[in-house]
Design a protein that fits this description.
CATH class of the largest domain: Alpha Beta
Strand content: 15-25%
Helix content: 25-40%
Shape: globular
Radius of gyration: 20 Å
Number of strands: 14
Order of helices and strands: EHEHEHEHEHEHEHHEEEEEEEHHH
Distance between the termini: 28 Å
Number of helices: 11
Oligomer: single chain
Largest sheet: 8 strands, mixed
Structural class: alpha/beta
């Protein structure tokens, strides 16, 4: 499969390295407006063609798919253009910011008979394998309660050559930590619980105490599922430390992943696993192989596309509902995607 990477920042560079380890994957081109970043792509892979704009790339390169790794501001327009050009699309989170955008993109993908695939890489992480394994193999049983806590002392910075602090620019990032880390937590929760939440409630902390500015730097989100099941999500860019914790409780035990250590406790005892990755790379290159294999397999099969495209809708709607709830002071909100995804 010939693929073009669009946006060659931290994520795009990580993707290029990852693609080079996957048999059958071929990065034919890299698109980035920065001459410095295009030069960096050619330095890593002298065989790759580089372009400054999408029309130029589409006119010159026969590609099968694009992998969109730009900041969120550009996602929807690039997705529309690529799908309209007849290309399959992988897109970094968030695929869309508003549910109506997600619905429009999914409809366009179906019309063009092309796959729109969210780059939800945490779904292919070792920690997610531990959590889903504990649920599906019956060790802890169906989740009744989960707690996700993501602590950071700052936002992740971009690369020199193009606005390294774009995550703090609301016009480019389109949101703060809820849209960034919160998106991962949203699809992880819906995958583990097997459905979209019934309601979403959120209280946020805003940069400079300016809610109107829209840049959330911390948030507490409560997802309530059918059957009195719930997931609590605690996010912060201002915690003064760095830590990740995912704890899922079921009727028979608990699965707990704290940074690099996983522990599953059940009636059968406790099992501990070291999940520390071989690299500390923030792009999580080692998770990409499984995600790309899923994408390429779906493209080749021509079926099963509803799963990732439904996830685009439900994840977008969940985060949109969290922002809506935060604007209402924490009042629970029904996510639009709970209804629209079922209808789709």
């Amino acid at each position: 499969m010939r693929t073009a990477i669009i946006g060659f920042g931290t994520a795009g560079e990580g993707r290029l390295h990852a693609y080079r380890t996957i048999p059958g994957a071929r990065v034919a081109a890299v698109l980035d407006p920065s001459p410095q970043r295009r030069a960096r792509a050619r330095q890593i892979d002298p065989t790759v063609a580089t372009y400054a704009g999408l029309p130029e790339l589409l006119a010159a390169e026969p590609v099968d798919a694009v992998d969109i790794c730009t900041p969120p501001l550009y996602h929807v327009d690039l997705e529309r253009a690529a799908l309209t050009a007849g290309l399959h699309v992988i897109c970094e989170k968030p695929v869309a910011v508003h549910t109506d955008e997600a619905l429009e993109l999914v409809a366009l993908a179906r019309q063009q008979e092309r796959l729109l695939y969210p780059a939800h890489n945490y779904g292919f992480s070792p920690m997610m394998r531990v959590l889903t394994g504990a649920v599906t193999n019956g060790r802890i049983g169906p989740p009744s309660h989960a707690v996700f806590r993501i602590a950071r002392d700052s936002h992740a910075r971009g690369v020199p050559g193009w606005q390294p602090d774009w995550r703090r620019d609301i016009s480019v990032a389109r949101g703060g930590i809820m849209l960034d880390h919160g998106t991962h937590c949203a699809y992880m929760a819906t995958q583990l619980f097997g459905e979209a939440p019934r309601t979403v409630a959120c209280v946020a902390q805003w940069a400079d105490d300016d809610a109107a500015g829209g840049m959330d730097v911390a948030a507490r989100i409560l997802l309530e599922f059918d059957g009195d099941r719930r997931c609590e999500i605690d996010l912060s860019w201002v915690s003064g430390t760095r830590s990740n914790r995912y704890r899922v409780t079921g009727p028979h035990g608990t699965a707990d992943v704290h940074d690099g250590l996983a522990e599953v406790r059940s009636v059968h005892g406790a099992e501990r696993t070291d999940l520390t990755p071989p690299t500390r790379d923030q792009t999580h290159q080692e998770w990409f192989g499984g995600m790309f294999a899923d994408f390429a397999g779906l493209v080749a099969a021509g079926t099963g596309w509803d799963r990732p495209m439904r996830e685009v809708i439900t994840t977008t709607a969940l985060i949109e509902a969290a922002y809506r709830s935060a604007a209402l002071g924490g009042e629970p909100v029904v996510p639009a995607g709970r209804v629209t995804a079922e209808a789709q």
